[in-house]
Amino acid sequence: MKFSTKNQTVRKLLLSILIACCLYTELFSQTKLNLSGQWTVALDSLDIGVKEQWENRLFDTQLSLPGTLDDAKLGNPNTLTPELEKLQLTHLTRKHHYVGAAWYAKEIEIPKDWNGEKTILKLERVIWKTTVWVDGVKVDTEQNSLIAPHYFDLSKYLTPGQTHRITLRIDNRKFFDVSYNNLAHAYTDHTQIIWNGVIGEFSLENQRAVHFDHVQVYPDITAKSVKVKAVIQNNTARAMKLPLHVACSLKEGKGLAGQVDQEITLSAGQQVVEFTLPITKEILPWDEFHPNLYSLHLSLGQKSISTDTALDFGFRDFKAQGKTFELNGQPIFLRGTLECNIFPLTGHPPMQKDEWLNIFQTAKNWGLNHIRFHSWCPPEAAFAAADQLGVYLQVELPIWSLTVGEFQSTTEFLYEEAQRMIKEYGNHPSFMLWSLGNELQGNMSVLNKMVSDLKEMDNRRLFANTSFTFEKGHGDRPEPNDDFFVTQWTKDGWVRGQGVFNAQSPSFNKNYNSALANVHVPVVTHEIGQYAVFPNIREIDKYTGVLDPLNFKAIRNDLQKKRLIQQADDFLQSSGKLAAILYKEEIERALKTAGISGFQLLDLHDFPGQGTALVGLLDAFWESKGILDSTDFKRFNGPLVPLLNFEKATYKNSEVFHADVSVSNYLQPFHESQTIEWSISKNDALLKSGKFDVQLGMGFNDGLGKFSVDLSSIQEATKLTVQLQIADTNYSNSWNIWVYPASETVNFGDVIYTNDVTEAIQQVQAGKKVLLNPDWKTTKGLEGKFVPVFWSPVHFPTQAGTMGLLLDKQNAVFADFPTDNHTDWQWWDLNVNSTTLIIDSLEGGTPLIQMIDNFANNRKLALAFEGSINEGKLMVVSIDLNSNLEKRIVAKQLLQSILRYMNSDDFRPATIRNPKWLADNLQPQQQEQQKQDATAIY
């Protein structure tokens, strides 16, 4: 048959259409197969699986993936019972423990219409190394990332329409030196656990023959444009021209903000396409108050049949201006806490966005805007949640090492991890700060080079070499290429309360300006706080997952054995109130320091590892302990905080209270003046008040105004509350001060005062009332301290290790000494000039000023106790109530209150059944008490 010219033209057209349809079917047929479900598994701790070809073995045990062996109760079951020993108190205990290789297998039917050029297996979040076989044939790559999905190209191993056996060998042993004592939170049993399995997306994807491998965006607010760098994979082995369409729109809005249409020429293989997308509408920047997100959609090919990709990003301009962080032209202050991979139900981080939204919203409810991921990088879901809520993230490589640079293989692994972090998470506006790791030591020049290299790779965030370091010659100054500096001290002094609060008398007009005088980049204070709170025994019932709280159970059992369990709730509340007081002053000093641009708490919530470090006002589940609510915490930890500068906590009534007002304002520029209202009250009864107008700029507003109050009208020992309020707003803050009569003389009445235990016993046995006040410097016991346990008494066992006072404020002994049931600032002088008595073996009597012991010991401790021997009555106080009382007005007032109590009918102490204890334990020691330096614990 012959065709006419017309028919031949039609024939060519039809043939062209047919070829084009075939081509585009080849290019763009795509689907994703969810591999979630039941898989078979076998454990291989002896590494015999490869030798015996387990990739072809039929395994008997099943488990659900995504999931872990711990979820499936596979591995070595825990056989430990709760005992108060270091091993038990180190961290939560895995109910089932396994470290080694595990094999997972499943038969997978490949869809018939999968005819793309590439089929990719994705395993999101694995520890640590993955090897894959298909039908017994080993895939020729391995993956070992701790922070990014493991990807495998299975294209040449799978046939559409057939069933294939996929076998995974996952080995969770340690492959590189990234974790000192396995403490880095990417690889640890202290917070998350060293689990084995897959916990995130688990899928097979049939990619189009031409597809976007990944896309990076570089928004520019000033230029009103977005630079786009698209990596495109062309697996057709032939060059082609294809139309590229790019559209940008506000995620929650309507209409285009900009678009680009152009034709691009693709050669075979992988290539990078770069272009700039102009933004034609007003740009809405991204920040904590307005987390505006934009969507970028890229489409390649015919509009009816196309390959496309989409991603979210935000416009933000984040930089260091001298000592200040600036975001979108305004100064910002990072109010942060750490996230150390603490998820006690699963032992691994959540992989769903909703769970991260709950965590970040809780942090924001408590006034925070910043999270530091200590020695690990979170999954995609965390970044997406932070983007949505406007949370500023500091992310780190999976390393906490003291041997940086010693092993080239480790350095290469870290470079690879860094590149994966950029590819997977680089577009997220919340990813603002990048520190290479935690407290890194070793060859610091290796870190310097890595930071410089990363700046070349990715200029969208600020970098630091390490989050502090103890490396000699470093750590007290920024590294040469640090964009910001994370530290606890500088060459010129401390920048956190650990080195200050026990050594210096309470003063509320202090800052860290002098310590930062020679630092010229923004400073973020490192892991401030770490004030231990007594365990919440009631928390035990929350542990319904893969971890057993043997540490909590051991503490509970010990308290029961020592008949202290009835005080456990009071220990929690009193120690927690002290921690909250200290956290308040920590935060306020940072806010008052112009050279500080942020702080990172350790921690708002508990850290269950490293010796059970219960340093949070929230528990490990991000839930309240009932110590303080978020509204009260946010008064001193928020974007707008009224601040007060005053000399001290305690006053004579012959003095005048002087105060200077300042405001930390990182909320908004105020174009009109604001009114600050101040007041002083006693038990909610107003004593004096005033107000004045101020102009608030962005940042720290110092020297806004002063006020003074004559205290002469206060005739008895009194606690006063000073409050500041920004008029017609919810922004307020308050502080306690204590006022004592100046002229009152100490009246001993018929009480015999002595510091000699022998004399005291003789006088008591003679039927007298005796106040025994032994010299605290030579009294046997524990160092008197105001601050509680730092971090953990197990992790740092050389510290005194007490956890604050437990008091009964209604007890008659405090009738003339106003106090709450917990330590507050008026107790500072009394605590540091004391020795804590260990009264475990004292039989009878009653502690009146009880000191809470740390949970690793649970001893019965006191600074004061009373008791009777026959007809005599005794009060023992191991606080200095004798020296320099005219200046030590708090000690004088406590002495006066004790004496009035002892001279009253209320003084009816219980019998001491073993009075010999007094002579055995209260004799002076030859060596005086030594005060431990704050750095001695290291």
Overview of this protein structure:
It comes from Sphingobacterium arenae. Residues 321-463 form the Glycoside hydrolase family 2 catalytic domain. By secondary structure, this protein is of the alpha+beta class. Helices cover 17% and strands 33% of the residues. It has 13 helices and 52 strands. An eight-stranded parallel β-sheet has the order 30-29-28-27-26-36-34-31. Strands 45, 46, 47, 48, 49, 50, 51 and 52 form an eight-stranded mixed β-sheet that branches. α3 (353-365) links the parallel β26 and β27 (370-373). α3 crosses α4 and α5 (408-425) packs parallel to α6 (444-457). The longest helix is centred in the first third of the chain and has 24 residues, at 5-28. It is globular, with a radius of gyration of 33 Å. The protein starts with a helix and ends in a 17-residue tail after the last helix. Residues 1-30 have low confidence and may be disordered.
